[in-house]
């Protein structure tokens, strides 16, 4: 998946956030500027985006991903476009994050680096 610059109706931009919901850089900034992310809201559905806290440690990130995947299963009418969460400002490598996405529903599209 390349850089996401536009969404179709029913598509949701999934991005990495910090616990304070301060969407100042990376994909979080894109979510805030283009896709309805709410300043001060760290996680969950926000406009046409969905935030996952990637800055509070791997345990928190894993819990956040599990919550997100449950949400995606409950909303099969939406298509979730996952960015390389945790692999930018948070500093993790794709091989550290990809295992959290081992079982995804059909409506979740992962970056190629998470599928390898």
Short description:
This protein has helices spanning 26-34, 58-74, 94-97, 112-115, and strands at 11-17, 44-46, 49-53, 79-82, 108-109. With 116 residues, it is α/β, with parallel strands linked by helices.
Q: How would you describe what is shown here?
A:
By secondary structure, this protein is α/β, with parallel strands linked by helices. The protein has one domain (11-115): Leucine Aminopeptidase, subunit E, domain 1, CATH 3.40.220.10. It is built from 4 helices and 5 strands, in the order βαββαβαβα. It has helices at 26-34, 58-74, 94-97, 112-115; strands spanning 11-17, 44-46, 49-53, 79-82, 108-109. It has a 5-stranded mixed sheet, sandwiched between helices. A hairpin with a 2-residue loop joins strand 2 and strand 3 (49-53). The chain starts with 10 loop residues before the first strand and ends with a helix.
Low-pLDDT segments: none
Judging by the overall fold, what is the CATH architecture?
A: 3-Layer(aba) Sandwich
- Coarse shape: globular
Strand order of the largest sheet: 2-3-1-4-5
CATH class categorisation: Alpha Beta
Task: Give the % helix.
Answer: 25-40%
User: Any idea how many domains?
Assistant: 1
The sequence of SSEs as H and E is EHEEHEHEH
CATH topology: Leucine Aminopeptidase, subunit E, domain 1
Q: Termini, distance in Å?
A: 13 Å
- Give the biggest beta sheet: 5 strands, mixed
Q: What value does the Rg take, in angstroms?
A: 12 Å
Sheet/helix structural class: alpha/beta
- Count, helices: 4
For the secondary structure, the number of strands is 5
